[in-house]
């Protein structure tokens, strides 16, 4: 009953993720408890032995809990099943049936909860994922716009705050995508295309963030040494990226989605006059940002998945 309550979450993907984490923690916790009861507990006669038996498992569970939030719940299950089996009484535990019954109950609860949700409560997060991706792209566009407005300033604190907020929105989209990928039936064609397109948009959003930060850092690092036509062209690229990202986000959030890939932005300085040799790092950073924005895929009912055109930006 407790397992059914724990894994009963609003969506199929979230429930599947919670059930997998519960099993991933309960199975090794029960196995460790079983090993300790059979081979270690009969030889214990003082508190030192008890500590040597339990502290390594506690430390291992704490190490898992200190890692990613996606797997932190497994550490709670590992520690709880191990502790309930060995530390439930004030004396040594010799009954193996409790460990067996608890593990069978967890497996049965996961199976019942999964069957009920797949049969009567099929709630997916595909539409929620699209809305979150659109919100992410708007946040990136706002971040790029703010970077363009603050490029002449040396105050890094507000820029860092906006940067962290944008990365938090991107991390939320990544967590939602991980749940959508676990929804039953995701191997089917429509769900596979949704997952692949979402992965592409998420990857491109990350690359656009890195390219925008690289462009801003390049501009600020040698402020005053760039030629005015190149600076104007860079600001124009920023503005075009802002417009294209917002347009793509609006089309992605529509129902049904009909987001067309952004058109390739031409660097204005090339059309005006040849860039000076000293301006080439800034020109390269601006063109890299333009390529990442153009790498967003077509997203519509009939569109095929396009591979992202991206290159990693070194930190």
Q: Give me the secondary-structure category.
A: mainly alpha
Query: What is the H/E order?
Result: HHHHHHHHHEHHE
Overall form: elongated
Distance between the termini: 49 Å
Query: Kindly state the mean pLDDT as a whole number?
Result: 81
Strand content: under 5%
Q: Give the biggest sheet.
A: 2 strands, antiparallel
Order of neighbouring strands in the sheet with most strands = 1-2
The whole-angstrom Rg is 26 Å
The quaternary state of the protein chains shown equals single chain
What is the helix fraction of residues, given as a range?
55-70%
Number of strands: 2
Count of domain modules:
2
- The DSSP helix count reads 11
Poorly predicted segments:
304-315
Keywords: Cell membrane, Membrane, Transmembrane, Transmembrane helix
Transmembrane segments: 23-41, 48-65, 103-121
Domain Integral membrane bound transporter: 1-116
Family: Belongs to the YccS/YhfK family.
Description:
Belongs to the YccS/YhfK family. This is FUSC family protein. Keywords: Cell membrane, Membrane, Transmembrane, Transmembrane helix. It holds the Pfam family FUSC_2. It is a multi-pass membrane protein. The C terminus is likely disordered. Helix 8 packs antiparallel against helix 11 and helix 9 runs parallel beside helix 11. This protein folds into two domains: 119 residues, no CATH class; 175 residues. It has a two-stranded antiparallel sheet with strand order 1-2. The protein is built from eleven helices and two strands. The chain is elongated, with a radius of gyration of 26 Å. 70% of the residues lie in helices and 1% in strands. By secondary structure, it is mainly alpha-helical.
């Amino acid at each position: 009953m407790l397992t059914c309550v724990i894994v009963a979450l609003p969506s199929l993907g979230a429930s599947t993720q919670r059930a997998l984490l519960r099993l991933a923690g309960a199975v090794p916790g029960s196995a460790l408890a079983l090993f300790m009861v059979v081979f270690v507990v009969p030889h214990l006669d003082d508190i030192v032995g008890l500590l040597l038996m339990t502290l390594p498992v506690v430390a291992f569970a704490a190490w898992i809990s200190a890692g990613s939030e996606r797997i932190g719940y497994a550490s709670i299950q590992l520690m709880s099943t191990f502790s309930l089996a060995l530390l439930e009484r004030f004396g040594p535990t010799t009954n193996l049936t409790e460990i067996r019954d608890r593990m069978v109950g967890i497996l049965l609860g996961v199976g019942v909860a999964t069957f009920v949700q797949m049969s009567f409560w099929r709630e997916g997060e595909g539409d929620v994922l699209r809305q979150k991706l659109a919100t992410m792209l708007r946040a990136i566009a706002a971040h790029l716009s703010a970077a363009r407005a603050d490029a002449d300033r040396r105050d890094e604190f507000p820029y860092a705050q906006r940067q962290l907020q944008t990365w938090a929105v991107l991390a939320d989209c990544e967590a939602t995508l991980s749940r959508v990928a676990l929804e039953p039936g995701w191997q089917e064609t429509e769900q596979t295309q949704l997952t692949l397109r979402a992965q592409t948009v998420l990857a491109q959003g990350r690359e656009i963030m890195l390219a925008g930060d690289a462009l801003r850092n390049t501009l600020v690092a040698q402020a005053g040494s760039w030629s005015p036509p190149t600076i104007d062209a860079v600001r124009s690229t920023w503005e075009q990226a802002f417009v294209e990202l917002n347009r793509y986000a609006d089309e992605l959030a529509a129902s049904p989605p009909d987001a067309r890939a952004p058109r390739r932005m031409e660097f204005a300085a090339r059309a005006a006059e040849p860039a000076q040799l000293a301006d080439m790092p800034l020109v390269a950073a601006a063109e890299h940002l333009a390529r990442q924005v153009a790498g967003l895929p077509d997203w519509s009912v009939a569109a095929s998945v396009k591979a992202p055109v991206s290159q990693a930006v070194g930190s």
